[in-house]
Fold:
Amino acid sequence: MSFNNLDTLYRQVIMDHYKNPRNKGVLEDDSLTINMNNPTCGDRIQLTLQLEDGKVADAKFEGEGCSISMSSASMMTQAIKGKSTEDALKMGHIFSDMMQGKEYEDDIDLGDIEALQGVSQFPARIKCATLAWKAMEKGINEG
Amino acid sequence: MNAREIRQLFPILDQEVNGHPLVYLDSGATSQKPRQVIEAIEKYYREDNSNVHRGVHTLGTRATDGYEGAREKVRKFINAKSTEEIIFTRGTTTSLNTVAASYGKANLHEGDEIVISYMEHHSNIIPWQQLAKQTGATLKYLPLQEDGTISLEDVKATVTGQTKIVSVTLVSNVLGVINPIKDIAAIAHQNGAIMVVDGAQGTPHMKVDVQDLDCDFLGFSGHKMCGPTGIGVLYGKKQLLENMEPIEFGGEMIDFVGLYESTWKELPWKFEGGTPIIASAIGLGAAIDFLEEIGLNEIEAHEHKLAAYAMERLSEVEGMTIFGPKTANNRAGIVTFNLDDVHPHDVATVLDAEGIAVRAGHHCAQPLMKWLKQSATARASFYLYNTEEDIDKLTQGLIKTKEYFSDVF
Structure:
């Protein structure tokens, strides 16, 4: 593998989300809080969600981790904001398929998230990318 | 010793990873296995496989001789007085858990203290946390000095007449610090406590003499010392083991079984319930032969040299922070570091693209990570098959990593 292959992992848009994370912070009031960590590597995320009328009204995250986990969290919050909880969960499924290198549905616009496709070629890093998504799924399913 | 020649004895090291010759710098997680260990395990399964301590037949005798022969090799390796003091376990974790669950539960009460340090691996923390919860004992931590070492003054101040167990690692799996176990054991004994030693990162790399250290228990793992996974050792002083109850019951460990009462075998077998890990014990015996042929003192000196060289070379990389003592004095072959803004997982991925294997994460030492104020770190750990050339490649890989991320940012 050369550094050219690394470029499929570290895409410009991923680095942009890592350096300039969107929706960084904590929602106050009666928002839902989900804490999740990756016990094998120490990555940690706190996701806060504002769910209203079956929609994700707002989402923010705090955490510590590598470029892949933090950029994925940034992209995920960006993607689900304003979506119905049903669509947010659907995106979670699509993302999971994408990470496993499976064919995935493309009837929802994934935007920046597609940049994470290359992670599927780096099996050791898939857990980094899915952490924030698991937190989102847990929040919506239990919220 | 000649590391280049030794390297040839490890078949796995002769391969390319991602288009580059493999540079394996993760022996702290698990070591590679020399041909003679792999062959010993294969020979056992090809020629001698049978259950131990029961068959009257020839294979049964061979398997028993192989298994008990490995026990004698372990005894000699750590200079225990008798093979009665050598219990085969699944690894260091099981060894430490056995001490906590058997000795600990029987001897600790509310108000007693257990003393461990901030640099312990989770397997030398959680068994004691659980024991403290179950018995009402208090768990206390030895503080670390600024460079990550333990001072004997702090040991004297922390260990009291209330302390019943002191459990400290011989070598930190993160900082590479070699702890003064003999002195800590003396302080523990002066206060009436027993001394437990986590030897996982120690026994593969240096001569360990349990009588000289005067430790009461020592746990270590086969797979970190050129042996297979699934086998470890619990050494314990005979008079302590004799008074301890087994924690696993069933076949192999019994003397006589009645309908409502049973009695146990003699030491060490009363702690070895079930069919043991025979092939792995034989593999561990072969690993000990291998290490002793080269010489533990030679291995220690080689790794010490590599650690000093690595600290020198890595310091050349801009933005490098090396954790633990600033010099290689008293440091085993472990160098843990972080590279500026680049997260250790990203460092490890870029190095992997260059065929270099390092560990990234919390290294099963979350309290230590907290003490270091790091959520994760990268670690290069060396063994007898590593060379200065490996460290040169690591240094070049880290410079490339730095350049790569300054380009993409």
Observations:
- Chain A is about 45% helix and 20% strand.
